[in-house]
Amino acid sequence: MAQHEGSVLMTYDYSPEVARLVARYGFQAVQVRMKNAHHNRLAELVITRERLFA
Description:
Blueprint: E1 8-11, H1 16-24, E2 28-35, E3 41-48
Antiparallel strand pairs: 1-3, 2-3
């Protein structure tokens, strides 16, 4: 992500390791509820360089 040109990454793979990497490299992350094609609600992790909350 540090070398990625985009500003946002979304993943279903939330884990303690991912949370540590987000904090270690100064990214921001928030979990959001999404609905897939089968109408199941799943949590996705949105990771960004942008400050999410003031």
